[in-house]
Amino acid sequence: MQxxxxxxxxxxSLISYILWPxxxxxxxxxxxxxxxxxxxxxxxxxxxxxxxxxxGGSGKTPVTIFLAKHLQMQGKKVAxxxxxxxxxxxxxxxxxxDETKVFDFARDAGDETFLLATKLAxxxxxxxxxxxxxxxxxxxxxxxxxxxxxxxxxxxxxVQHDYDFVVFNAIGGIGNGFVLPAGxxxxxxxxxxxSNYIVFNGKGKISNKIExxxxxxxxxxxxxxxxxxxxxxxxxPEGKLALLSGIGLPSSFEDTVHKAxxxxxxxxxxxxxxxxxxxxxxxxxxxxxxxxxxxxxxxTEKDFAKLQFIKHHLPLxxxxxEFVLDNINQLQL
Length: 333
Fold this sequence. Notes:
By secondary structure, this protein is of the alpha/beta class. The protein has two domains: 46-215, Rossmann fold, CATH 3.40.50; 222-324, Rossmann fold. It has helices at 2-10, 14-36, 60-73, 111-119, 131-141, 208-211, 250-259, 279-292, 301-307, and strands at residues 46-51, 78-82, 94-97, 125-127, 147-151, 163-169, 197-201, 217-228, 241-245, 267-269, 296-300, 316-325. The longest helix is centred in the first third of the chain and has 23 residues, at 14-36. The termini are far apart. 40% of the residues are buried. The mean pLDDT is 93.
């Protein structure tokens, strides 16, 4: 069933054409929204938005981490705002980490927010879907702040952005080119005219439907930094391997593992942001691993942000990756 749904989203089919009238109406609403909603709050800091126009995983958070570290290495004062999707603080504005530490309650902030806080040492991270309040909080607490990066904010129009980065994944691309529900686009490709940079994550040909907007295209991909066990020690994955993930584009994880020259027997795939708290699921995975005589279960850092706080005996190896730009000389902030 899942494969059938994906096929109709990534390839033009009878079903996608049947749904196209709904998508067309939705596209018009989104275009009107861009035209008539006036940008609101103007921060004294430079506001960088990292977002996408496709549903599912394109790599926004790794790009956010890359940009934050890039600015930090240049000696800039930077902070990060994340919605805190499916976290405890989504409906409030709460600092998850500051310049010295990650707070104990960060585990409740949502998987991506927690990942940002743990990966960005020395960079404050705040959770909350009201980006204006998050920005104002950061401005007040850190008067010398120069940049604030908003993870997943391209469609957030209540705050003025100085730079908009729109991320595409080479595997998913633009799908069949249709807007939801007939395709994977969150809004029409014409929204790219509002971007400053297009980030292309992965190898492959860039669609001329993207190139025609004549925006600077930053090309990069994930590189595996290391494989680590649950204690944080580096480990060499050997024997029979399987994958475990709950991310937007699981095939991207598979591609990363293949590029490392590893073969896996099975991929336990769950919906994006899956919390793994269902003990029956954990027991079923454990049983399948025993039946298949799997030695290790490779998982993403985003999934481990949840799995590390759940009682289980899964033989996990965390695949630690970083996003690296091939043409970083074209990045001007």
